[in-house]
Automatic annotation (TrEMBL):
The gene is rnhA. The lineage of its organism: Bacteria, Bacillati, Bacillota, Clostridia, Halanaerobiales. One of its GO terms (biological process) is RNA catabolic process. The keyword Chloroplast does not apply. Residues 14-149 form the TsaA-like domain. GO terms for molecular function: magnesium ion binding; nucleic acid binding; RNA-DNA hybrid ribonuclease activity. This is Ribonuclease H. Its cofactor is Mg(2+).
């Protein structure tokens, strides 16, 4: 029979199997959640555990379990001898949170596995300091680990991700090719931000893409963005064509090189840092924000060609 009291008093020790490597060298520059495709992160597994990586590369995502060696336990607020933390004016039990300060400072992240070379596991971004000890690695298995009925519990949507920001974009070109302008309008709460630009020799499609790229650059990463555009080229490219282009080595379905590949690659990389919703706006239909970016894009051409 199991002696529960003896088990409860048991001292548990872990041995590090490796270390997390990245550019996060202080607690202030670690994101709240890892960016899905940030570069420069890898797991350095101790040589004696290298054989344990066999077949891991067949999985797309993995769990990384690590020891939060610099977490400060004194941040915990002990209310009535129960571990609680203050969160948005609420007293939340530490086990109902993902705070790093815990009775046992263990962290868990799901990351994308990029490739494995010997004892180095290259991964997408992870929310841990450079040099953080790794306790274990496990494969993420879609049919076992993905639960469609999962919910947010007490966590408000804005705590997971910024409130949805609206991004209106448009591009214009005189002559096509010829001088062109682009404009983006960011609406967040009651604040509006305008981004606009000009190029002396370009096309309408390149200006449409530039508007989206430059607009996203002004929005904080890990943000939910509603992209509103009247450009079928931009919206269909992002929603329907992009994945096929990449699989074919940036070739179209007719095996031709993708036009504006440089901008599509930049937009593809940038869009991975956001949760994007795409909305088709009918051009010149009275939508005041769409009309505004249309006018601003054309204005850039006029101002630079006097």
């Amino acid at each position: 029979m199991i002696n529960i009291e003896k088990v409860m008093k048991m001292e548990i020790n872990f041995t590090s199997v490796g270390y997390i490597r990245n550019n996060y060298n202080n607690l202030n520059n670690i994101p709240g959640q890892p960016y899905s495709d940030e570069e420069g992160h890898y797991l350095e597994i101790n040589k004696e555990y290298q054989s344990g990586l066999k077949e891991l590369s067949r999985f797309k995502y993995i769990y990384v379990i690590f020891y939060l060696h610099k977490a400060a336990k004194e941040k915990l607020n002990d209310i009535d001898h129960k571990f609680r933390i203050k969160k948005e004016g609420q007293d939340i039990g530490v086990f109902a949170s993902r705070e790093p300060s815990r009775p046992n400072n263990i962290g868990l992240s799901i990351v994308r596995l990029i490739r494995i070379k010997e004892n180095i596991v290259y991964i997408s971004g992870i929310d841990a300091l450079n040099g953080t000890p790794i306790i274990d690695i496990k494969p993420y298995i879609v049919k076992l680990d993905n639960h469609e009925d999962a919910n947010k519990g007490w966590i408000k949507e804005e705590l997971i991700m910024d409130k949805k920001i609206e991004l209106y974009t448009d591009g214009a070109c005189s002559g096509n090719p010829g001088p062109g302008g682009y404009a983006a309008l960011i609406i967040k709460d009651n604040e509006e931000i305008i981004i606009k630009g000009y190029q002396p020799e370009t096309t309408n499609n390149r200006m449409e893409l530039m508007a989206v790229i430059e607009g996203l650059k002004e929005i904080n990463k890990n943000t939910s963005v509603r992209l509103l555009s009247d450009s079928n080229y931009v919206l269909q490219g992002l929603e329907e064509w992009l994945e096929g282009w990449k699989k074919r080595g940036w070739k179209t379905a007719s095996n031709r090189p993708v036009k504006n590949k440089d901008l599509w690659m930049e937009l593809d990389n940038l869009s991975k840092y956001y949760e994007l919703e795409f909305v088709k706006v009918k051009g010149h239909s009275g939508n005041k924000y769409n009309e505004r970016v249309d006018s601003l894009a054309k204005e850039q051409i006029e101002l630079n060609n006097k």
